[in-house]
Amino acid sequence: MRGRVRVKWRRALVGKQQSGAETRDRLIRAAGESLLAEGYAGTSARTIARAAGVNSALVFYHFGGVDPLLLAALDRASEQRMTTYREAVASARNLEELVEVATQIYRTDIAEGHITMFSELVGASIARPELREEIVKRSEPWIDFVETTLDRVIGGSALAKLLPPRDLAYAAITFYLGVNLFTHLDADRSRTEALFSLAARVAPRARLLTLRLPRRGGRDA
Length: 221
Known about the structure:
78% helix
């Protein structure tokens, strides 16, 4: 008898855990969708819960509030994007190819709305210091990713001496965020596309600057 009770209790516990995980997953997906469709100002526990098909109290039960839930949605999107983009840039062997990949990443982000989530939370963080700290924390892995990629492509070159990869990474993230924000004002995207076209024209001309400098003693880097 006791054995049967234990089995039933364990099954009930597992079922509850699975149900909780499913609810969290639905809330995270709904939060991302709401942020894209309604923006930060139009996203609330009620709108997220409605989209997820659950009670709004579960937003606070599972995440402690709307902002932590939105950050969870951003974390999920960032993790997926990081995996995809690591694979995308892995084949870039020079600055020209890297600019080409970056252009495709930009177009994908615009089409699928990835950067919109980040942009909305950045805008909201201006008036919410606690949110600002979380956004800054989540920016660091992207800066590291860009720095590592740049170091692989141009590290040891004259360009890297002139513009260290870490500094370029900060500049690239700032530029990329600004470009994506401006895209919302640039209806036909002609101006933002022109910037990437300019980068594509400049990259081949910078080829000499990206050649590896020889090490002391005559050995190549």
